[in-house]
């Protein structure tokens, strides 16, 4: 089976301004639907949210050159070619990898996680917030998420130590011991602030402490991990791909590795990262925040590994589900069940895609890749 075409469509942004800590400005999220079309009539899809229109448009000539005429089962070779042997993955190359796996699964009428080798058929979920200006907003949303079935909840709070301590105390008091809680200040603190917050999180029995300081401060992460009993999670912002992760593991800079599959190399790179972590006896907890198909890509990897506890779902529920027939939802026991449809397991709604289409992306006159 050969690839016969590659297309990309700019979709309308969600009617929501996203931010994940106080100092950031709210931002609109851009969505691009990548289609890799096979000669068997199937299409592999990925809806990106970390790729700009210009970046995708600029890359289309190169993608067409590399992909058209190739067998999608050559996903490993293709991913190497598009990411400089995994040394320089991008949001575009990651989206291609995800869409290729979707196409392969549809060709074989099998969910991707089963092609990877199923380890389980459900994963426990946690609700992952956006930033809110008031402490009570986090409390109210936690209670709402608990009513939906979640028993784990992660706060993207203010990114200011004293304010974050206040909101963490308030949420813990509101939910009692009915929910596991996590905090992600998005690399906001200095070392002193991280120690201060970390000790309070231990007192409040939080499940993990994510991205407390910049991931570039490996010595600081080592100190935190050695000094705190709570699990310290990090390395999510490392953009150089798989080859930059070992130092976090071998130096015990984190208790668990985070990873954003949609810019570190897609499903292929996540599976390798998980295997590396497993060899060192630590968890690989991918950041699955994003569009439904981005969530699905991470979820399929989670279903094919043992060293991952939780799948991350954006809340309020549905804020990134545009253009979909199927979505990831928590069940009454706090888990997300494995998909049964082939490929990524979650189907786009072509009628809805038509309604939210802004334009088809085309090769630009001044594309830096033209003629390559």
UniProtKB/TrEMBL annotation:
Keyword Signal attached: no
GO biological process, one term: carbohydrate catabolic process
Span of domain Mandelate racemase/muconate lactonizing enzyme C-terminal: 135-231
GO MF entries: hydro-lyase activity; magnesium ion binding
Record's keyword terms, sorted: Magnesium, Metal-binding
Name this polypeptide is given: L-alanine-DL-glutamate epimerase-like enolase superfamily enzyme
UniProt superkingdom: Bacteria
Cofactors: Mg(2+)
A Pfam short name: MR_MLE_N
